[in-house]
Amino acid sequence: MIPYILIDWLFDSVVLSLFTVITIIYYLSTSTYDKWRKLNVQHIHPVPLFGNVFKMIMGLEDQITAFGRIYRRFPNSKICGFYQMRTPFLMIRDPELIDAITIKDFSHFTDHGLEFDPSINLLARSLFFANGQKWKVMRQKLSPGFTSGKLKCTNDQIKECSDQLIQFVDEKLSKQSDGFDVKEIFGKFTTDVIGTCAFGLKLDTITDSDSNFRKYLNEIFGNNFKQTCIMMLGMVFPKVVKFFKLRSFPLEASNFFYSVFTDVIDYRTKNSVVRNDLAQTLMEARKELVLNGDNATGDEKFTDLDIISNAILLFTAGAETVSVTAAFCLYELALNRDIQNKLRDEINSKNEKYGGQFTNEFLMDLHYADMVLEETHRMYSITVNIIRQATQTFKVPGMDSFIIEKGQKIVIPMSSIHHDPKYYPNPKTFDPERFTKEEKSKRPNSTFLPFGEGPRHCIGMYS
């Protein structure tokens, strides 16, 4: 009799314990899911733990599809709510409100709110991830590196890299007839351009099939399963990622670029090398913020790691974004021969006008080329969303008493807006004529956001 009683007791204990554990897990995974209901914000009912991004996390749909589905669900709303895993996000759909958040009332939304630990992720110290005063100071120090005057000085270097690219393509075409990877070739080209123009590095990546620069760039931006899992875990339990010091960026790649840019700065400093480039801007920032920055303390204090982190960001992000845009642009030109011919005619005409000289005046006069690139940016946005976090409580204009609380994460669905027929009829059609002055004047502000908007727009927007 006693053994049966003991078995029953153990069984009941196991069932009770299992029920308790499941209840706790369920509570923790759904405890945030009443926020939008309480605030009477339209939202999609979330799935426990995964929120409204289950298919995206499972790899069943990409980000564009996932966020586009949420965007289209509430076509008449200025805002809507959703849950990225357990985190409540507010999606901003209205261009006028986007304009307020990114420009007019930017002081309420200065931070991206991306949580990466700078002690284990070097890129977390860079401009893109920095918040508050540290972002503001670094932005001010780096902006002089992107003036029109400095960019004009790079024309000869870009032409040299372009000539090398054309020679490489000609040789490729003479040896094979089955095509080649345009994105990879442009990746090599942009790596060489940024290497020489911004950092004075002669990389010859175009002809070097074993370039470490390309290898580690691909590691940072590639679809690595381990890194994807860490990013997913960070969405649900950021404290776990921080506790176990899990790296969101490959360590070997970070170490490689850290070594390269440290050597560049050390060499220039020791040999008194001065060039009118981005590396010089970083060195001047280092002098002011690190070597002479005695007043800063704690998290506001700058170190050499901050300077190197920004060098890595500007190099890697610049090379990758330009190569991807160029690849998509060529893809659309190949599909649309009439646009290709019109663009070629403009380039040939302007080339003759300026005597075959690759000057800033020649580039600024390529108006149709600008329209082609803008349409490429619209159709193939490099990033899907703009992320912000409220740094102050914000009363939403025109929405009675609705308030965005301090700390609330928001999403501006850039790609979804770029494909909204309300602003861009037949959005799947590649049509540069959307970007004539007349057509642009018909659209509301903040409906074309490939580089973001306001004080926190991409620092390389005009380069």
Write structural notes for this entry.
The chain is mostly helical and 463 residues long. The chain folds into three domains: 1-30; 32-109 and 383-463, Uridine Diphospho-n-acetylenolpyruvylglucosamine Reductase, domain 2 (2-Layer Sandwich), CATH 3.30.43.20; 116-315, Orthogonal Bundle (Cytochrome p450), CATH 1.10.630.10. Helices cover 55% and strands 5% of the residues. The chain has helices at residues 2-30, 35-38, 54-57, 63-73, 95-104, 132-142, 148-152, 155-175, 182-199, 212-221, 225-236, 238-243, 251-270, 278-291, 304-335, 337-353, 360-364, 367-379, 414-418, 437-442, and strands spanning 79-84, 87-92, 386-389, 394-395, 403-404, 409-412. A four-stranded mixed sheet has the order 1-2-6-3. A hairpin with a 2-residue loop joins strand 1 (79-84) and strand 2. The radius of gyration is 25 Å and the shape is globular. The mean pLDDT is 89.
Identify the notable features of this structure and list them briefly.
single chain; 463 residues; mainly alpha; Uridine Diphospho-n-acetylenolpyruvylglucosamine Reductase, domain 2; Cytochrome p450; four-stranded mixed sheet; two-stranded antiparallel ribbon; 20 helices; globular; Cyt_P450; monooxygenase activity; iron ion binding; heme
